[in-house]
């Protein structure tokens, strides 16, 4: 069966709260009906390349992995109670902020272990009033323009770890941002001199990049913010020297000298 239409899932009993579709590599198309009363859906090891959601007021969690999807489903916005959406090991190469506008009820969105190399913004207009966390770790990103995330004005957690990021452009402007995670990338230089005030910022994690020196203009960050860095190519003696004279906002990390 390469297609599951609404007439199939229409018969799922109302008592079922978790629906799992597993090990169906021949399945290419999936249609979720409006009457489905399950609150959680797990789609695992399928060949799905398209999925359609009818308007639904029950589903709050959808997890898909792996799959052949090349973009986020345009009908995510039909899931009125959706709080958590995770897709991994997909064929998605470009993330369009416009698609997040359609999924306006999502609180946590994860597109991980996929092929994303670009993030494209359609308009600076604010959106996604409920989006609290965006996780794009383990993709193929090589540069980040923070202006791309400007519409996500309620964003609290942004995870960009385990990509191949070398360049950071601009400054986040998300006033609600608390945690920015950039670990395990290829960043060689970062300065906070031109950064916008981020009053809620708690942590910027830059561990395991290729930084040769500590970031400058730390005073531009909020008083509660801590920056975690691993300095690339430094001796243990130089590391201890830097740690002893570091500002309170900076935490140096090594595999043999972990962050405090």
From TrEMBL:
Superkingdom classification of source: Eukaryota
Keyword annotations from UniProtKB, A to Z: Leucine-rich repeat, Repeat
Transmembrane regions: none
Pfam families: LRR_8
InterPro entries hit by this protein: Leu-rich_rpt (IPR001611), LRR_dom_sf (IPR032675)
Gene3D superfamilies on file: Ribonuclease Inhibitor (3.80.10.10)
Residues in coiled coil: none
Name under which the protein is recorded: AGAP013278-PA
Organism: Anopheles gambiae
Classification of source organism: Eukaryota, Metazoa, Ecdysozoa, Arthropoda, Hexapoda
